[in-house]
Each structure stands twice: as C-alpha cells, then as structure tokens.
Amino acid sequence: MRVLVVDDFSTMRRIVKNLLKDIGFENIEEADDGKTALPILKTGKIDFLVTDWNMPGLSGIDLVKTIRSEPALANIPILMVTAEAKREQIIEAAQAGVNGYVVKPFTAQVLKEKIEKIFSR
Amino acid sequence: MIDEQLDLKIIDALRDKASALMEAVESGNLKESVDLINILNKTRQEVFYEEVGVLTRTLHNSIKAYGIDLGEKLNSNSETVVENASQSLSYVIDITEKNSHETMDRVDSLISQSQELSKQNAQIIESLRTIAQLEEVKDKAPEAISTALELTEINTAKINEMEMELMNIIVSQGIQDISGQLIRKVIDLLSDVELKLVSLVRMASNIEELSPLAVENRANEHVEQKVITGPQIDKNNENAAHSQEDVDDLLSNLGF
Known about the structure:
Chain A has 121 residues and is of the alpha/beta class.
C-alpha cells in the first residue's frame, strides 16, 4: 500500500512518516502542498492520503474537493491532519469527504487510532 | 477625537449654510437648495479627508519615533525594520526546523539501536530456553537460568517502553509546525500592516487627488478573502475544538 503525506512543514511530514512506518506502511511519498500532490495522486499509485489543511499553493481542503470530484481518485481514503480547529472547518472537511480528522498537536496513539479506524471500515 | 473634530467642523458648515438653505427651500428654489446640500456634503467629505490626513501623519510620526521610516519604503526598495523583523521570524522557523530534524535524527538512531537490542534479546531468550531444557542445567542451576530468562524478558519490555517514549519525542517535534504556522501568520500580518500603512501615508500626501468612490472601490477589493485561522490559541473560543475529543464529538454528532 502506497501512502502520500502532504504538509508544507518537513518536520510534520517526517513525524507522520515515522508513525506510518511504525504501524507497517512501507511505501510513503511526500509532497509539500496540494499542487505538488495532485500529479503524484494522478499517477494512480496512491492508496491513502494524509494531508494538512493550511498550505501555500493548493490548500488541503481544496485538494480534498479536487480528489473527490475526480472519478479516478474519488475513493482514496483521506486523513486530514491539521491545526485548523474551528467547528465550521471540521464540518467543511467532513462534508468535503475526509475519512478522518486529526487536530494538531496530536499524540502517536491518536494518529494510529484514526488510521486504523479508516482501514477497519 | 476625530469624530469630535468632524462634528465641530460640520456643525460650523451647517450653521453657515442653514439659513441660506431654509430661504432657498421656502422660496421654492430647488436648484439652489440642491446646490447648498451638495456643498454641505462636499464640506463633510473634505473635513473627513483632512482629518484622515492628520491622523495618518500623526501615526507616521509616531512610527518614525520608533526608528521605522516608511518614507524610505515610499521612495525606494530599501529594507525596512518590518522586513528585518519578518526575516528574523523566518529565521526562527528555519532554525527550529533544523533543530527538530537534528533531534529526530538522534531519536531515529536510538530507535533503530533499541530495535536491534530487542532482536538480540529475543535471540538470548530463545537460547536460554534451549539451555533450560538441558538435564545438567535442570539439575544444577535451575534458579540461575530462570532468573536470567526473567531479567531478559523484563529488559525487552523496558526496551519496548523506551521505543514508545522515543516515538513520543518525535511526535512532540510537531510543535515546530504549530509555532511555525503562528509565526508565518505574524509575518503576513506585519507585511500587510506595513503595506497598508505605506498606502495610507501615500494617500495622506495626495489627499486632494482622491475621490470617495475610489476609496470605496479599493476598500472593497479586500473584502473577499478566504479565512484560514490556524492553531486555536484562545481556549475560550466556543467555535473551535480544543482537543481531539472535541473533534471526535463534533464529527460523531454529524454522523461521521
């Protein structure tokens, strides 16, 4: 299973990558915003997306909306990991089609739980 | 203060034109009445712009007193104190990012060493169990071998706990992302305030060229902006989630 981690902070990409590896994901790719993530997603090789919201270029929420509107990508599970914590934003993300929402700062346990929950469905 | 000044000057103008306006209205002179109303309106606008000019110049002088010369920015591309401050803040993001990666490099190295120790312990436990089956050991050193087994198993559990703690150190480096986002917001705000202040100073020096319509149009250009709020630092904001539990509750209420 191939995972794409999208975040403009390299620190956060590395943290998520470490946790993903710890729960058994081996093939992990990285992108620093939605714009660079899209061509990687369009290769059709990504099975799971973990994305931040607030990024320059194309934001995470716009990336989610774009993915859900493209039939070839519409079924990719998406976990949003973000510091955006307003109720209206969480609702917007849920309505845009994310499968999980983790608010930063998070613990290793929370991130693992949310990922496992997505794949247990 | 500006309101009081505006009121006083407008009242003066009203007092000056009121009787002429009354006369024009009573004598049914529509054109003169409208002209007088227009003059009053124009006076109000002129007074307002004059006050904005005074206020801007006062603000500019106060800022200059702190060593920030917006005049330089108006006339050249030289670096301002605000840009210097923004660069310093960007530097903070860069060094904390570098430092976080260095910390994670070390922790990654410790994690791989502890994984190696875990593997070796598993081999030791296997060997000890094989040795424990030997008749000689069963007869002569049963307690020694069971103590060795017990201690090695305890060590394995401790190494696993250490690995979890090491992973928590890696996750805690996420603070660099949170603080970085907040610093970026401050940098954007500083640049924005400086830009608008420069525009305001420029406007104050060219007040006579400005029309109220142009001001309104330019103000409207900035109304439509998508708000990204970033980390929620106000714990009393009821419209924000303050923990993962809050997020989970909200999503489950929505049926997700």
